[in-house]
Design a protein that fits this description.
Distance between the termini: 40 Å
Structural class: alpha+beta
Number of helices: 5
Number of strands: 4
CATH topology: Alpha-Beta Plaits
Strand order of the largest sheet: 2-3-1-4
Radius of gyration: 15 Å
Largest sheet: 4 strands, antiparallel
């Protein structure tokens, strides 16, 4: 049975979720988190996209981003996931799928929902009880957005 085509509106903001195959860990140490952020930075620039929030959890990733068109989103996510999977498989001497299924994407159409979504994404470590405050978690955009920490990966959200 064929996959259902993703809906897309030009310049729409999307909530992207990609999860490790069988919910396995895709980030085993700090260098893995850093490598994913480097890859994200590269393809953000290559595809001229904007990133408004992110959260890297041990077995999945949340991104809130904007691309110019549907092919850019698909190609960007393919490039990110492929690059990271190649890095991970080489580093840990693995082969096969790293990511479970294809990434999920949800269009964000209302400004109020976008702000709630960013909060939801950045509070993920708190809900998972990985930390006692979002400020403690180094692999999300929270510290930049709320505390003003430097982060060249993020774009300014203009509503």
């Amino acid at each position: 049975m064929p996959r259902i085509a993703r809906s897309f509106i030009s310049n729409a903001v999307s909530h992207i979720i990609t999860r490790g195959n069988q919910r396995q860990k895709v980030f085993k140490d700090e260098s893995d988190f850093r490598k994913y952020l480097q890859i994200l930075w590269k393809y953000k620039n290559d595809f001229q996209s904007s990133i408004f929030a992110y959260c890297l959890m041990s077995n999945h990733v949340h991104l809130v981003l904007q691309t110019l068109d549907k092919p850019s989103l698909s190609k960007m996510m393919h490039s990110i996931n492929l690059s990271y999977a190649m890095y991970f498989n080489y580093k840990y001497k693995k082969c096969g799928h790293l990511w479970q299924d294809r990434y999920k994407s949800y269009m964000v159409q209302k400004d109020k929902y976008l702000l709630n979504l960013i909060t939801y994404v950045e509070m993920n470590p708190l809900r998972a009880q990985i930390c006692s405050s979002a400020e403690e978690y180094p692999w999300s955009s929270y510290r930049h957005r709320i505390l003003g920490d430097q982060n060249k990966l993020l774009d300014k959200l203009v509503l």
